[in-house]
Design a protein that fits this description.
By secondary structure, this protein is α+β, with helices and mostly antiparallel strands. Helices cover 36% and strands 22% of the residues. The chain contains 12 helices and 16 strands. Strands 9, 10, 11, 12 and 13 form a 5-stranded antiparallel β-sheet that branches.
Amino acid sequence: MHFSIPETESRSGDSGGSAYVAYNIHVNGVLHCRVRYSQLLGLHEQLRKEYGANVLPAFPPKKLFSLTPAEVEQRREQLEKYMQAVRQDPLLGSSETFNSFLRRAQQETQQVPTEEVSLEVLLSNGQKVLVNVLTSDQTEDVLEAVAAKLDLPDDLIGYFSLFLVREKEDGAFSFVRKLQEFELPYVSVTSLRSQEYKIVLRKSYWDSAYDDDVMENRVGLNLLYAQTVSDIERGWILVTKEQHRQLKSLQEKVSKKEFLRLAQTLRHYGYLRFDACVADFPEKDCPVVVSAGNSELSLQLRLPGQQLREGSFRVTRMRCWRVTSSVPLPSGSTSSPGRGRGEAIMMSICLQSMVDELMVKKSGGSIRKMLRRRVGGTLRRSDSQQAVKSPPLLESPDATRESMVKLSSKLSAVSLRGIGSPSTDASASDVHGNFAFEGIGDEDL
């Protein structure tokens, strides 16, 4: 998840007070909230009290006098690096202090009062699920509400996530991002002010071995079946004529488990496909379709003469990747980022989540075990409807905690940092790298 502070705004104080500088915090290129330096300083002080000064990254100091334009820009850059560093730290980034700060700031920035509303969540097959939530409910609350409406057991909730998507003219979905614990789903989707943005429930894991846990339950089986049928219909899963005939026969017999077993053997099963884009290799402006899944990025390139070439990049062989953009957002924009940049950031997020899943599996953790720990530690909403965040989802069982800390510390130390030498067509703030595997040896994977 990429945090940036691409610009500042000069704003008038309340009741005619003195003007102040506001910092627009963007998440994946979309305005999340607008905060003052004093608010970020308050967050820093609270984190320092809870975790100690030696854990926190450097925070830009106070100034006695008004800042010059150059100093304002320097502080903006320092605050951006600070927010990125806190978010990427496994301890700080998953803390309730950090996440609740961002949720409150999001609600205040978008000026959404706390009230009960009906929120529409779509299943992969387009079926609508209406849940009654509060506008101040965090992602975990909404996911639990959807699971309760569907009668999905608590120990399977961790296998699914809520995604923000854009519905295209042909009815297909373009995935924007997975909704995170620091945001309010209702505010996130309504602040985009467009009916084409929706929230979709989809499985959250990449390894198809986890399917067995989901298929044990009737509701889980139905959700996985609906998603797979939808992926086949939209062409995300590659199917031959014979395989299509076999799948159709199993559908007619309503043999859902057998259908899924066959689907698991198909190419690109469980993959997420991105919108069509262009590549500069092996030919300039070569059309390419990129899919993410099974610990790889898969590419289908169409060369001159309509020749089709396929290739892949295994995530375990990557040492870094970066996202660049040369098209800045308008100041204060709350709209979606440029679709190319949004897709690129989503691609980066998918790669990072594959890394996370590999680390959990290597450490001996499991989705079911982790969820039981999470549910056991969750405090239900009080009368004020303020949810309390549970322990980090990636926290491993005690017996494997040491190895998990070793891997996650390597991971967080190098994740998502600015690159000092931007290309000629992109500013420094528009170039962001992820060095997730730098410093991680093959023996760790």
